[in-house]
Amino acid sequence: MLRGSNERTKMLRRASVEAVPHISIERARLMTEAYKIYEGKVSIPVLRARAFEYFMKNRTLYIGEGELIVGEKGERPAGTPTYPELCCHTMDDFKIMNIREKISYKVSEEAFKIQEEVIIPYWKERAARGKIISNMGEDWKYCYNNGIFTEFMEQRAPGHTVCGHKIYEKGFEGFKTQIEDEIQKLDFFTDKDAMSKKEQLKGMSICCDAIMLYGERYAEYAKNLAAQEDNPQRKDELLEIAENCEVVPANKPKTFAQAIQMYWFVHIGVTTELNIWDAFSPGRLDQHLNPFYIADLDEDNLHEDGARELLECLWIKFNNQPAPPKVGVTLKESGTYTDFANINTGGITPDGKDGVNDVSYMILEVMDEMKLLQPSSNVQISRKTPDDFLKKACDISRKGWGQPAFYNTEAIIQELLNAGKTIADARLAGCSGCIETGVYGKEAYILTGYFNLPKILDITLYNGVDRETNQQIGPQTGDSKDFKTYEELMDAFTIQLKYFVDIKLEGNNIIESIYMNYMPAPFMSVVIDDCITNGKDYNAGGARYNVSYVQGVGIGTITDSLSAIKYNVFDKNKFTLKELLTAMENNFDGYDIIKNIVSNRTPKYGNDDDYADDIMNRVFKMYHGEISGRPNMKGGEYRINMLPTTCHVYFGAVIGATPNGRLAHKPLPEGISPEKGADRNGPTAVIKSASKMDHLITGGTLLNQKFTPKVVDGEIGLKNMSALVRSYFNLDGHHIQFNVIDKQVLIEAQKNPDENKDLIVRVAGYSDLFNNLDKVLQDEIIERTEQTF
Fold first, then answer.
1. Per-residue confidence at 335, pLDDT binned at 50, 70, 90?
2. Out of 26, 333, 436, 443, which one is annotated catalytic?
3. 132 CB neighbour count, 10 Å cutoff
4. How far apart are CA 674 and CA 685, in angstroms?
5. How far apart are the first and last CA of the chain?
6. How many other C-beta atoms lie within 10 A of the C-beta of residue 693?
7. Is 80 exceeded by the pLDDT of residue 278?
């Protein structure tokens, strides 16, 4: 079935989904040429800006057949650039990416040649990754290499942030004027940082010129194509593209089409300046675009079908951009082509009113029609959100491909207020990437890596020894078999948790310092408040708010494991801790009685059972207490959120059998979801358990639920699904999303992948093609509890 509202978008969508992800070596080559010209001759901010300018001046332009929105990260759709200044891939990396079965990127002979002869010789000793690794101690390296935590910036730059509204109110000529005014106001008599600010601002000004040059080049290119075009309709379309590119990005947009093109130019600029943990998102797209939509309708410049067509073209643009290639641990924590751009729809307006508008409904319709992996789409549900909008979103979600996800507007606002944001800024906020909360256009909210909570418990049970390697890596906190009380175990766990959190945050601070000093992002700094007025880079604390996150993984596993120990060893005396550890060391083989007790006769998280849920809440508060509020290097602080991407599979692979009966090396539950099969009292029990965590002191939590289609079928099913979302949000839950699919469908798809190429499922904070997932992750999704009302 061809999807799209007309022949144009059907054609463009088909081309997008059929395009083969491949390495575009052009960016790496041009950045290398630029560095050879400018390195050592100008300041680092100006060097980065000149390199960005050189790239925008010389990069290949692409306008595909029938396109209305222009700009690609590579020379054509599905081309992904590399970022050798961050991570200089080896020839083996390229070979592996070219042939690996899952998430492969085809590498041309030319790309192999350029990488070997040009890129590696120049960048091997210069890349940020080398600086990071060389500055880390052996304890950090062990933890990173053995799954205690991960590190996002090991191959990617800080980012994962969101654009605000100001690009719709001012063009880059205006931004450049603002920058020049700030340079003139610098005080070289009393401000010791004046020279540094001047260089940062010069870099930003150069980037304004660069993005405007990019728009000018596209305008000229479209005119040239129009001159050669015989089809009158396409000639007019190309001339309109040229006209739009003459307006944006230099000036503020005047029309719906120009507003979309403005955002897309900024998106391409930000994501090719640096690989900012894959994601850059447009924020409240419905609220940004609605004024242009209304004005165009009033002036008869556009009709509803034309607006829908433009949005579908934007959706295709997002889908044309596979995530930059990852290798090693970074691939394990995020094994997907998905680029994590996330569209927020609904919520409230800046003055606190219902934010749902005509474009909100249109976005839902486009999402449903296009059914693409990218962009990820969500709805913000406020107490003021109309039930019709919630039901429409649920109706799309129950079709079974995992979009949209649902977010609680009131929770988002309170989370940001608790983190020190103003109410005015909090109302401009939402989520990006998977579930992370931030103030759009005003905040650098940086995800720094995942933290393996069940692994810390395992190390505690073995007196600081990692039993996967038999190495003493944590402090000796006592032989757990000698503990007389549950509190002795928790005291030991507290020590181990602090020890490993300290290693993680020390490493984070080193990495932040490296990016502050060596890898500024002057273009992104232009579009994020208050980098211009502060004269500081995005990566150096220039934004209004600067938060660093560490993501906790495996709360369901560690909760049920501690419950198994507390309930059976210390409360009921059913067996000793030594006997339980022996059963675990044998993967419960031959220990069926213990396995049955811990699996089936022990309180579990996800069943509205205070015994287990109190344990969950205690561990959560311990984790929060060790991280939240500690200062980062950019003048902000650390906070936590609870999500995994695909890291719950990797983290499970480095842990043996656990006290709750989970077998060795099996995946952990994703986000704050219960262990698979542990949640036996239905979805309302799950949300009541999950709500006992204080979501409002986090930056976001992820909850998955799985239904078979018949459970949510019909008007009653739709009503129940909508009521579940409302109920969870009334309990201050942050986020919920759904897989609506029959287990047998997934099993059949696993057996016959060629017959199920288009099957999409919800993984964690994103959806993906079932065929793109490795078997372990497929099995994990198959085994998730199928709930019923």
1. confident
2. 436
3. 22
4. 11
5. 33
6. 25
7. no
Strand ranges in 708-780 using DSSP code E only, listed in sequence order = 735-740, 760-762, 767-769
Query: Which residue shows structure tokens 């309930």?
Result: 567
* 685: number of Cβ within 10 Å: 17
Cα distances (angstroms) measured from residue 391 to each of 132, 247, 407, 720, 776 = 48, 39, 14, 10, 34
Tell me: cis bond preceding 644? Omega within 30 of 0 counts.
no
- Enter the DSSP assignment of 631: B
Sign of the Cα torsion 222, 227, 231, 233 reads positive
CA 297 from chain centre, in angstroms, equals 35
> Which pLDDT value is given to residue 329?
77
3-state secondary structure of 78: coil
> How large is the angle between the packed helices 304-319 and 256-273, nearest 10 degrees?
10
Task: DSSP letter for 456, please.
Answer: H
Name the 3-class secondary structure at 681. Answer: coil
Other Cβ atoms within 10 Å of 50 Cβ, number: 23
Contacts of 417 (CB under 8 A, 6+ apart): 423, 426
Per-residue confidence band for 105, with pLDDT thresholds at 50, 70 and 90: very high
Q: Is residue 498 within 8 Å of residue 475, measured between CB atoms?
A: no
* Distance from C-alpha of 217 to C-alpha of 205, rounded to nearest angstrom: 19
Residue-level pLDDT at 326:
86
d(CA 429, CA 425) in angstroms, rounded, equals: 7
DSSP state string for 672-725: TPPPTTT--S-HHHHHHHHTTS-GGGSS-B--EEEE-GGGG-HHHHHHHHHHHH
Q: What DSSP state is assigned to residue 354?
A: B
For residue 321, which of 335, 340, 307 has the smallest C-alpha distance? 340
- Residue 146 CB neighbour total at 10 angstroms: 17
Q: Is 639 left (phi over 0), alpha (psi -120 to 50) or beta?
A: beta
368 three-state secondary structure: helix
Tokens of 50: 């000149």
Q: Residue 1: what pLDDT?
A: 64
Among residues 143, 163, 434, 647, the one annotated as catalytic is 434
**Placement of tokens 């009158």 in the chain:** 232
- Whether 334 has a pLDDT exceeding 80, the answer reads no
CA distance 254 to 260: 11
Yes or no: say if 376 and 765 are a contact pair by the CB < 8 Å rule: yes
| Residue 735, strand partner residues | 407
- 434 is known as an active-site residue: yes
Residue type, 267: H
Q: How many CA atoms lie within 13 A of 763 on its CB side?
A: 33
Cis before residue 375, ω within 30 degrees of 0? yes
- Side-chain-side CA neighbours of residue 519 (13 Å): 26
Pairing relationship of beta strands 436-439 and 429-432 according to DSSP bridges = antiparallel
The tokens describing 338, both together, are 């998905």
Q: What is the pLDDT of residues 664-708, one digit of tens each?
A: 999 999 999 999 999 999 999 999 999 999 999 999 999 999 999
- CA neighbor of 205 nearest in space, from 233, 224, 222, 183: 183
Tokens representing 84 are 């050798």
